[in-house]
Amino acid sequence: MPDSPVLYVLNGPNLNLLGQREPEVYGRETLADVQARCERAAGKATVVFRQTNHEGELIDWVQEAAGKADALVLNPAGYGHTSVALLDALRTLTIPVVECHLSNPAARERFRHRSYVSAVAAGVVSGFGPLSYELAVQAALGLAQERSRTADRSV
User: Which of 10-14, 45-49, 111-115, 145-149 has the lowest mean pLDDT?
Assistant: First the structure.
């Protein structure tokens, strides 16, 4: 892993409305606030932070991360419950993936209890509001660092 690892933080649909949409569920911080938290938590790592409302664009970014990132934090939002295409894209990755949610999907509506992303994620951080992102960033970078150390020992 380079001195400055690259971390992709990708966000799915409606997260551009953070701070406005259902603040009782998602909180009052904006997506820009969440991005700042991620950048602080990442320390010297380079953070590529993106949000889209379009499934194909999210998949394009996952595929891009395969060649450019050391780890991926993904809040798939609603696509986590519906997108087999996103699952298929994530299966192509060899970097650590950490799934992240502001709310706790297991404590919400039944249809939110299943996540296709969880099937390929190293772990899931959910239910801590914006702190979920900070914890997910720390976990993803820690996994990437451990992966790098293991690769270095095998050479």
Answer: 111-115
| Cβ atoms within 10 Å, residue 95 | 20
Say if residues 145 and 71 touch (Cβ distance below 8 Å): no
Residue 23 structure tokens = 């603040």
Residue 51 clears pLDDT 70, i.e. is over it: yes
Q: Rounded distance, CA 35 to CA 41, Å?
A: 10
Could you give the residue numbers annotated as active site?
Answer: 26, 101
- State the pTM of this model: 0.91
The CATH number, out of the four listed (2.40.50.140, 3.40.50.9100, 4.10.910.10, 3.40.720.10), of the domain defined by the range 6-154: 3.40.50.9100
Position 95 pLDDT exceeds 60: yes
Spatial contact of 101 and 126, defined as CB atoms under 8 Å apart = yes
Given a contact cutoff of 8 angstroms between Cβ atoms, the answer to whether 38 and 133 are in contact is yes
